Structure formats: C-alpha cells, structure tokens
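Worked example 2:
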Amino acid sequence: MAVDELERPAKLRGPGFFGSIRGAMSMLGDRMAPMTQLHAAYGDTTSFWIGPRRIYCSSDPDFIQECLVSRHKDFQKARAYFALRLVMGNGLVTSEGDFHLRQRRMIQPAFLKERVRRYGEHMTHYAEEIGKTWQPGQEVDINREMMSMALNIVGKSLFNSDVSAEAGAVGRSLDTLMHMDAVFLNPAGPLIAKLPLPINGLRKRATAEVDRVIYKMIDEHRAAGDQGDLLSMLIQARDEDDGSQMTDKQVRDEAVTLFLAGHETTANTLAWTWYLLSQNPEAEARMQDEVDHVLGGRLPGADDYPALDYTRRVLQESMRLYPPVWA
C-alpha cells in the first residue's frame, strides 16, 4: 500500500533529489550519520530518494505502531530482506503472511516456561564459566568475551552441543555471510547474487558449511529423539490445524534464524551494557546492589527475573541507546 494513505503528518519534508544522492553516497561509509542528519533537519518522519525509489524514514512512535502493529497486514517486508534471505532462508525474521503465522505458532512451544528455564540454566552456567577466567585488574576484550559466551549458550540451547566444532563452524560461516549484507542490500543485490563473482563463491561455500552442520544435526536429532534443545523442538513441532511438521529445509531456516538471534545481537547488547555501566558508576553500583540483595551470592534463576527490576531497566536502556538491530 502507499505510505501516503497512512495517518502521517500532512507536510512531509525531506531532501531533494541531489540531497538524496549525497545522503545515499555517504551511507556507503557510515549508515547512521545520514539518518541522524535527516532527523535533525526534518524531524521524526521524512523521506528521501535512492534512484527512482522513494524511501520513508520515521522514528515517530505512533507512526511505527501503525505500520508494525495496527496495520501490519497492509505491508510487506522491504526488498532489503533479500540479503537476509540469502542467509536465513524463509525463517521467522524473513517470512510473511500465513506462512509466518503458521511457523510462529509451531515454534511457540519452544519458549514455554519450562523450556525457557532450561535455557536459563545454560546461560548462567556459561556466564559463570567465563567469569572464572577473569582476574581482578585484568584487561579483557569485552566484545570478544561476550561473543564467545553467547556462542556457547546458543550452541547448547539450540543444538545441545557444548559448542566445540559444530556451533563454532556455524558461527564463523554465519559471521562471514552477515558481513556481506552491504553488498546485497543495494537495489542491484538480486542481480549481483546471480553473477559469477568471487563474493558469490565465498557466499556459497559459507552457506554450504552452515547447511552441512545443521542438516547433520537434524539427522542426528531425528534419530535420537527429544534432547531438550531448540532443534528438537523445531523437529517435533506440529501445525495445530493439519498436524503437519516442518520439512528439513524449514527446520534449517528457523535454526539459522534462532542462531543469529541468540549470538551476535545478544553479545552486542551485553558489550554495550558493560560500556555504559563503566561510564555511569552510580548506575553500576545500584545494579550491583540489587543483584547482591536479590541473589545473595548465588547464581540467578528464571524465578529471580521479576525481582531484578533495575537490572532489567538497565538492559532496556542499553538497547534503547545502542539497539542491536537499529533499523
């Protein structure tokens, strides 16, 4: 549908054609700066041109609510999702319409309370393990440490694997694929993907490695039965209407989506949270006091979440300031 049909400000301001060209060119080096400049110059909702296409950009909460919630059925996901589909296939992040609804309903049992409690045990275990490797006064690369911890957690929760070779191989290959997104995000992305270019050879090799590991694990899980992990849940999930199950390809796409959702984005959120706390010692002290008071020196469990109110607000503020998926 046309954005003009939405309840938006009557006067929508934005840069002209040549101003849009300058902005599009600057996005090749820094995607965030042009968006910040647009907001400063034209307000919460604006538009600009990329070639013949008019792009609408809004940070207005009511407008976003209308697009993503109130009238979400009137919209399709952007063409830019082509780049994500090359990696994720047709998983929850990239799928749409009735298929998305079916998949979401089938996956929901994976996040029931008892399952989440089990995943929480993996999280606290690996957090404790990585904490044991740090010494007072030691300087660590916190982003690398959080990436390692998140990889361990997602490997155990998704594959029931202590990461080792399998999850590590998937993580490295997905990292390679995700760093190609800038190439395939541009309007010529679908054409580039068909050309005999070196980047496509690298993409196909990385995809083949992801598929090799995940399809192997799917076969092993089908043979072994429920192992209490997310992959087992995906394999066993049934459509509530016709009782059908996911194909191996569908399981693969959802597994890759969950792997990405639980790895880099989670690690980035934690790394920025530690950075912000280091810059705000009062907030750090208040959060530490709450953790000490609620836990009394023990590891946290799922039942402690409601009592850690300030800790939750710290994480939410961190994601507001440094969202892992900002657009």
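The longest helix spans residues 198-224. The longest strand covers residues 45-50.
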